[in-house]
Write a structure and sequence with these properties.
331 residues; alpha/beta; globular; 9-stranded mixed sheet
Length: 331
């Protein structure tokens, strides 16, 4: 890998995650679609928060690309995160989370934007599945104005989250970030983030993919939806035409990694799942750490598989130093 200042410069929605345990009945009672990320208005989110019976398990800075950049940092990688938060208590919490993790950012705690920081209500059911209702708040207006071209140029990889395609300014920011990266020898990586983004914003996602990306992360369902195919073999063929390298995760069945030449089947690390929040994000973060630090794609895939297994065995999308040591001891 080239010796640039950052392993990864990521762009994405900055959301404070409110993690709450619910039963399936809660979804039918409150007309919530299970297993998907749904964008909601602030009053709808407040209504759900009020209706929830049970404690908030965790409250911390999140968002798809943020979770990935936190994962990279937890393994010792160097990341930069570009996002938008407001000058409220959630915004300050978000900035402090980044600073504590050693992640550089475009945010300045002394000059945040007026408005409301985005929140994601993460509802976890006993089967460990997570259902997200998201009020984007100020991150709805995330735009190319927030981009830090210098950070993109000085990174080995640009990493973009698929959730940004739901906003016209977010879509423009993705296209501009990709242009800057491609003109300056920074590899472009993208995650589809959620089946809903591929299902409802397929045209926008295809606009971002454009002439292709260097590295794509998705799960099997997202790959099928994006390409309009069924089955892992058809999905692999379809994704191969738009990404030089890719990872398709298969939940409890592990993942398949394509390194540009060969396929590598990545075995899962069996675990008792408690909370699936951030599993795919952590997979991407650990994988990006691996390929930036001398590991082959197969080795990076194994590290990522162990890391995502560790994440689902506890609440929240983060690993502490003990978890990281445990993961490394398995590899």
């Amino acid at each position: 890998m080239m010796n640039k200042k950052y392993d990864v410069c990521a762009i994405g929605n900055a959301l404070v995650d409110y993690e709450i345990e619910v039963k399936d009945q809660f979804f039918s009672d409150h007309d919530v679609e299970k297993g998907l990320m749904t964008l909601v208005e602030e009053d709808r989110q407040a209504e759900l928060l009020e209706a929830v019976q049970g404690d908030i398990k965790k409250k911390q800075g999140g968002g798809s690309a943020a979770n990935t950049i936190f994962g990279l940092a937890e393994f010792g990688g160097k990341g930069f995160y570009t996002c938008k938060v407001a000058d409220d208590s959630d915004g300050l919490l978000y900035v402090n989370d980044l600073i504590k993790a050693g992640i550089e950012t475009n945010l300045n705690p002394d000059s945040l934007y007026n408005g409301t920081t985005g929140k994601c209500l993460v509802m976890i059911t006993p089967d460990a599945e997570r259902t997200m209702n998201t009020y984007l708040g100020i991150t709805t207006d995330f735009s190319k104005n927030e981009l830090n071209a210098e950070a993109i140029v000085n990174a080995n990889y640009l990493f973009m989250e698929g959730f940004l395609v739901s906003s016209p300014t977010g879509l423009e920011a993705m296209k501009e970030a990709k242009r800057i990266a491609q003109e300056n020898g920074t590899k472009v990586s993208l995650t589809f983030s959620d089946p809903s983004m591929v299902k409802y914003f397929n045209d926008q996602m295809k606009e971002v993919v454009g002439d292709g990306v260097d590295l794509l992360f998705c799960n099997i369902h997202e790959a099928e939806l994006f390409a309009g195919v069924e089955g892992i073999e058809a999905a692999k063929d379809a994704i191969k035409s738009i990404a030089k390298e890719f990872v398709i995760t298969k939940g409890k069945d592990g993942a398949v990694v394509f390194d540009g030449t060969d396929y590598h089947e990545i075995e899962p690390f069996p675990t008792k799942a408690v909370d699936a929040t951030g599993a795919g994000d952590m997979f991407a973060g650990a994988f990006l750490y691996g390929i930036n630090h001398g590991h082959s794609h197969a080795e990076a895939g194994r590290l990522a598989s162990a890391a995502s297994s560790a994440v689902v065995s506890k609440f929240g999308p983060r690993l502490n130093k003990n978890h990281v040591q445990e993961v490394l001891s398995k590899i």
